[in-house]
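User: Sequence recovery, please. Input:
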């Protein structure tokens, strides 16, 4: 018998990603309608646009050789130039208004690689990262793997509650733990999992708090704007990064996966200038640079206007899907008769559903099992709160019991008829667990429904 395998401490701290379970359910049960995994609309994937660009790219020897050779660790320079102009346009800025340029942008193999490398670069075991509650549970997994203490502050319809953040930072300072606070993480546009957006006033307050409490070390804001370009209602809001006029406190993470195609697996980030070199040292050890061929494809899609045109069409697709899901929810659970409540996102791919206290929605709950039997699956809200998940997600902040009666619904991949059928199946599951006539009608003030 061979000697036992010895894994690293980090390996033991790394749990199986929760999303893997939900993806397995979809593969194993072809009759299951999954509103769990955050997959994009398959019909809208830009096959023709990409095919045209690839044919054009491979038509000449020079462009073929350039695209199929190694690229740079930081990313294809013409693409970084376009990304710089793109971000400025989104925020309504000119180059003179911003303190960052193309040399402060790093192209990565999806935004997930960017998030992970930042953890390696900035965080030591025992350091503190503050997130929203609920928050993006896949990022929780990264933090757990790195041995990070994750603390949370609650959200409301305007996003992360900055007054609660100020209170938490003050408590940490009094306890002598402020030097361990390294990052404040926010998904500030159409948040995964709630679909909510951080308000304009709170964006400014968030930056002010990071600056005010940067007393022994610089506290950085990690602004995950993966869904920014999927706004289909309301006025756009400038990024937190746009207020960081010295380019010191905000790291902006973006991706092509949601507004274009995840198969191209390309993300990018804007960093304070003094972080670019250190991050590139880590990235050099990871992969010498992300797919050069994909970057050439993306550069041409942006140059031709095909990228902008596709994103515009995608916004209309997701608006229609959101409307279908919300309509199906209201039909199955009439607001005048049912205490169920849900968010109404102005963009993105997610609706956050809250059941009454009588109905637990966790992965071991009767409702979740009943929903699976009926043929639909959602993400239990418990996964999205630190230390309330069946998986080890780090240290919580008094929010451990949260999420037990909440769920995330993703309308990205399901077709319209599937969205309607999924809500009918969910309705049957809810009635199996607790008949609707036994649910007391309540007033849930302050939430969109």
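Assistant: Recovered sequence (449 residues):
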């Amino acid at each position: 018998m061979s000697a036992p395998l010895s894994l690293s401490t980090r390996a033991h701290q790394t749990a199986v990603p929760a999303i893997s379970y939900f993806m397995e359910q979809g593969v194993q049960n072809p009759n299951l309608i999954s509103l769990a995994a955050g997959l994009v609309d398959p019909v809208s994937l830009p096959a023709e646009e990409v095919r045209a660009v690839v044919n054009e790219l491979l038509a000449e020897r020079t462009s073929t050789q350039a695209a199929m050779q190694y690229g740079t660790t930081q990313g294809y320079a013409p693409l970084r130039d376009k990304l710089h102009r793109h971000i400025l346009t989104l925020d309504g800025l000119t180059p003179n208004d911003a303190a960052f340029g193309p040399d402060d942008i790093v192209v990565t193999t999806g935004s997930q690689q960017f998030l992970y490398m930042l953890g390696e670069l900035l965080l030591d075991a025992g350091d503190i990262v503050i997130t929203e509650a609920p928050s993006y549970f896949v990022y929780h997994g990264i933090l757990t793997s790195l041995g990070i203490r994750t603390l949370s502050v609650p959200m409301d319809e305007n996003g992360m509650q900055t007054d609660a953040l100020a209170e938490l930072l003050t408590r940490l300072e009094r306890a002598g733990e402020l030097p361990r606070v390294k990052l404040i993480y926010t998904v500030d546009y159409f948040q995964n999992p709630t679909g909510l957006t951080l308000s304009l006033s709170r964006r400014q307050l968030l930056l002010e708090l990071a600056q005010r409490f940067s007393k022994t070390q610089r506290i950085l804001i990690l602004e995950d704007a993966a869904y920014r370009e999927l706004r289909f209602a309301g006025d756009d809001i400038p990024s937190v990064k746009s207020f960081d006029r010295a380019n010191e406190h905000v790291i902006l993470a973006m991706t092509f996966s949601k507004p274009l195609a995840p198969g191209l697996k390309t993300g990018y980030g804007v960093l304070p200038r003094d972080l670019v070199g250190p991050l590139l040292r880590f990235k050099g050890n990871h992969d010498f640079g992300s797919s050069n061929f994909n970057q050439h494809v993306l550069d041409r899609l942006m140059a031709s206007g095909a990228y902008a045109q596709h994103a515009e069409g995608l916004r209309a697709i997701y608006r229609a899907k959101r409307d279908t899901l919300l309509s199906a929810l209201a039909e199955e659970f009439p607001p005048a008769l049912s205490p169920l409540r849900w968010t109404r996102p102005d963009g993105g791919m997610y609706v956050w559903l809250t059941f009454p206290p009588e109905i637990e929605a966790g992965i071991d709950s009767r409702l979740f099992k009943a929903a699976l039997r009926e043929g639909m699956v959602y993400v239990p809200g418990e996964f999205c709160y630190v230390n309330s998940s069946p998986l080890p997600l780090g240290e919580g902040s008094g929010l451990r019991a949260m999420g037990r009666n909440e769920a995330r619904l993703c309308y990205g991949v399901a077709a319209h008829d599937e969205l309607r059928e999924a809500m009918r199946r969910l309705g049957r599951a809810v009635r199996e667990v607790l008949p609707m006539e036994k649910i007391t009608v309540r007033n849930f003030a302050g939430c969109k429904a």
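Confidence is low (pLDDT under 50) at residues 388-400, 440-449.
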